[in-house]
Design goal:
Blueprint lengths: L1 E2 L5 E2 L22 H22 L3 H6 L3 H7 L40 H6 L5 H9 L1 H4 L13 H13 L39 H8 L5 H6 L4 H15 L8 H12 L11
Antiparallel strand pairs: 1-2
Length: 272
């Protein structure tokens, strides 16, 4: 093992980086130009769809939000936030009753940045929608290093779920206070989640949501741990980094998925 300039040990070449440090995303080169062009076209199409969704008036989008879909979308938030009434604060404040609450005012939470405290005002549904789209742009200087939710429909679903977890849910439109459907038919399902480098499988959605809130997909895929190793690592993330504990049955699903697809043999390690 070599030493760096400060005398510390430098990991051997090719060794996976520690999970606590986010690695730069891979930059593969595509020898097939046609494939590259098809990806560009796909990206433009997706960007156009997102733009079209954002052009829908915010009140209309919020009125159509589904708390049930929002519950699933909130998985990525659980790495840093709790939402149950009376639950403890973790890295971020508990979000019970956040809709309609004054900004930076969660009782007992004393880790707000000056930037968030000076943001001021009230977390209205419309303001939450704007913030969730680009948190770091809305509040420059925030320590919430989360890129945001680009999909307008997913943001509306998240706001509906946050609104439902409140002592006094607001009527977001259409007689659906708290995101409760006034109609008898069920909400349309959310579109399939993009798993990035993760392989499809039982527990993939939950694992992707919990892990990629703070880490790149590649770092997770590189670890190559047995189930017991993943179990210890999740406990370490809670004890040393204040991650919100993953509750059952999600925890077991995450551990089973990681052990099956990213165990010591690393059968799905991205090598390109």
């Amino acid at each position: 093992m070599r030493r760096n300039r400060n005398g510390g040990a430098r990991p051997a070449r090719g060794a996976p980086p520690p999970l606590g440090r986010r690695a730069a995303p891979p930059c593969p080169l595509y020898p097939d130009v046609r494939r590259g062009l098809s990806l560009v076209v796909l990206g433009l199409a997706l960007a156009g769809a997102a733009t079209a969704a954002d052009e829908v008036p915010v009140k209309e989008r919020l009125a159509d939000g589904s708390a049930e879909r929002g519950r699933a979308a909130f998985l990525v938030c659980r790495a840093c936030h709790t939402i149950d009434q009376g639950a403890a604060h973790t890295i971020g404040p508990n979000l019970w009753g956040v809709v309609g609450r004054e900004v930076a005012s969660a009782e007992g939470y004393d880790r707000y940045t000056p930037a968030m405290s000076s943001y001021g005002g009230v977390w209205s549904p419309e303001r939450l929608d704007r913030y969730l789209r680009e948190p770091m742009a809305q509040v420059e200087g925030t320590t919430m290093v989360f890129p945001g939710v680009a999909d307008a429909r997913e943001r509306a679903d998240l706001v509906a779920w946050l609104n439902r977890n409140s002592p006094a849910p607001l009527d977001l439109g259409g007689g659906r206070a708290g995101g409760t459907q006034a109609r008898t038919e069920a909400s349309p399902p959310a579109p399939p989640r993009d798993l990035g480098l993760f392989v499809a499988g039982e527990g993939a959605v939950e694992t992707h949501a919990y892990c990629t809130a703070c880490h790149s997909e590649r770092i997770v895929a590189q670890q190559g741990l047995a189930r017991s190793g993943w179990d210890e690592l999740l406990a370490q993330m809670v004890e040393e980094h204040e991650m919100t504990p993953i509750e059952e049955p999600d925890r077991a699903r995450v551990l089973d998925y990681l052990a099956a697809h990213y165990g010591p043999e690393r059968p799905n390690f991205p090598r390109h």
